[in-house]
Amino acid sequence: MAFDGMTVAAVVSELKREIVGGRIYKIAQPEEDELLLTIKTAQGQKRLALSASASLPLIYLTEKNKQAPMTAPGFCMLLRKHLQNGRITDITQPGLERIIQIHVEHLNELGDLCRKKLVMELMGKHSNLIFVNDGELIIDSIKHISGMVSSVREVLPGRPYFIPQTQEKENPLEADHDSFIRTITAKAAPVFKALYGSYTGLSPSASNALCLEAGIDGDMSTAVFSESAQGDALLEKLWRSFAGTMERLKRERFSPVIFYENNSPAEFSALSSHELEASYGDGNVKKFDSVSVLLEQYYAQKNQISRIRQKSVDLRRIVQTALERNIRKYDLQIRQMQDTEKREKYRIYGELINTYGYHVKPGAKSMEALNYYTNQMITIPLDPLLSASDNAKKYFDKYGKLKRTYEALSTLTLAVKDEIDHLESIQTALDIALREEDLAQIKEELIESGYIRRKGGARKVKITSRPFHYVSREGFHIYVGKNNLQNDELTFKFASGNDWWFHAKGIPGSHVVVKAGGEELPDSVFEAAAKLAAYYSRGREQDKVEIDYTQKKNVKKPNAGKPGFVIYYTNYSMMIDTDISPETSGLEQIEP
Question: Quick one: 329 exposed, middle or buried, by C-beta within 10 A (0-12, 13-18, 19+)?
Fold first, then answer.
């Protein structure tokens, strides 16, 4: 869910409890558009991070400190002058706007009590941190916005501060039954769009959640309320959902949660509901007591995924280019292989001409002969300018050429198919990668495979990436390779002969090893390890994946085999889902 007005309300509620009454002890500006306030309260020291980043505006309490620059920027120095040792008297949110006002009182140089506000506007690319005096005049801001940039409002020292009304939206906290009915039915749009298009602070995700709670399809048109026999009842359900949510906001009854899809954070909500949680399913909901902890964890995980995606762009392009080239080559070779299927026909033609050609008249264009392989009569085309023996030789030459082509292509197609499988396995490894050291090991594999040239004089990088490590509910340790080099290391150097080995059948994926320790594994451990093999494979988006498993002693490395490629002949198989959430799989991940 977006950082909407309801999330802001949850943050304001938490900040009121935690830092109102505290004194601002330190002010730092670690980034161009970010502040870090250290606040001393009766409960101890707190840190408040405020980011006006255009791509990711945020405000939350954090325990992490950030290195500030040696020379503080001008805006930071100004805040230190006015707010250092100032007391936070209140934190407010106008309506359900994406705005947080931090009210501070302090003594000036003459010892007079002064009141000022630090205003955090969380409005996407228009986000800003604005310092305002008690007369609502802007003292300064972390971003200056002139009239040349915005015709709606200038954000410059000395200008009046006001909240720009760029859209005709109502305050949802002030809505009553009759006004809500009038507002929603007046808009000809899908229901969820009518909600967020009419009220401040509601995002599309929050509006869809309100519809879900009311049991209404958010994509259906508001016309259904007037044109359907059940229209009034549906509208009443939507009102009850809306009113109940607004009441929870007023009473500050927040329930922060993160929703996961495929073990990755999909969205979050400051006001969860049974219906919303049920839509994601058991094991995909993580609840929090603090919205700050939620925001820090959610965006840290999101940032990690997006950062790795960005850093892996070059590697993905190299792999994709090589893969497309090999697929084109493979398709051409398969077509050429299909052309060689005529070779046996030409051999038989040659044999039959040698056998029955003595009665062929000179200049004949064809001959009838009994095919003694099928016991059927066939017609053999002839070159009228050649003798029977020369026609036979011509067909034997064609056969010989196609046979040589077939034999050569049989070897080449296998090699190209191996290369395609190898590149697809590297693609899967790039999808699995979570850290820069994981990418470094994949890059090393690409260098060793000849897809990337090692720069002159550059040494082989030190590999620090380690396999994923899980522990089952029963206490068995399970390891998952992140890439082909790790898969080889895990299977042939780390695993013992009686350990159990798992892999997705017929598709690229990780090697999964269960350390048996000489014990017999319970069925639940087999299932947990199979889930890991399914999740860390190309089939992770499927409902079920077929998994092969066997003891490690049955797994062999073929001669000159590509990294990560193995053969085995004795194995079991099972169909399993890809849900590795702790609640359903019983797995606990151990951080390296």
Answer: middle
